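Morning. Coffee machine broken again, so started the prediction first thing and wrote up yesterday's gels while waiting. Chain of 327 residues, entered below exactly as on the submission form.
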Amino acid sequence: MGGVRLPAGLTPEATMARTCSKFVWTAGLVVCAVLPVSSQPRDPRQFGSPAALTCDAAQIKPDSYALATRVQASIVTEDRSRWWERFSIAKGADDLRDLNWGSLFAAERAVELDPHNLLAHAVLARQDVLLGLSASRAEAEWRAVLDNGGAVVWTATLYDVDVKSYFIVAFDRLALRVYRFGELAHPFGTHLGMPKFPGSDRERLWRAWAGCVDAKARPEASVPWSDVREIKAGNWVLEFKLAQKIIVGSDGGKRKELDVIKMNLHGGTPTLETHVSRDPIDPWNIDVRTMGIGPLAYQERVRRTLVKFVDPDGRIALPKASRSAGW
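Came back before lunch.
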């Protein structure tokens, strides 16, 4: 996968220090007491996945379980920006990096405390691919989670269904499953029409986000991998082309029949490019254009990792991806 690109001056240690200055245990303990500042992404060999992982909270050490659920909720829902900073795309990208690194470090510590914690392994499986840290560890985590009946899960936006609704997308050995956000998070608030992530009291959501989806939750769609014909990587989305149409409904009441699922898996950090050009006749006439470029490498990592486990025969087509300002 290659190393993740960090902004100048932003190292794993610096990010961890920033993380430690913010996150607080729900029980009143500072997360930094559990996550040392010297912590950084471990070598894959340090996480030899045990033969059996479990979603059962009663069989997981309490501190490990908390790091994979309640602490993850605190990391995701923390308000990192003052209201005027929310107009800055660069600040938004920094906040997203904080979130991603914080989630990773908490999951690493959870695995150290209890190697049998499937939720922690599922978070690592997602975050390793998201951050592009270690292909070997990512594959080991995916294998451990899927072999033990879990899923690797993202929240997502399905643009062709409802741009103002979120979905939970779970990838397991058998199928791609799409759930309404409200199926697992209800009730939840909104801000400017967009869903707000609830707190740690919504344990059903955070267990699902960590790979342990409630078996009683009803998916909007369950697509067996045999029905996926192609996975295309765009700059902002992955497109899953299906052999049969499905119908997906949103929390906003919209329903759409699809033969292509166009999904933005949350967490990828975009880059900005500024282009300046001068009028050859009037040099004082300067045109400045800012172009947002989606995280294509992230989309590519997701689909390449995914097919290794769900399509060993290479049946699913993977068209060549190209970097641009489009989807």
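The chain is about 30% helix and 20% strand. Going to sketch it on the whiteboard this afternoon.
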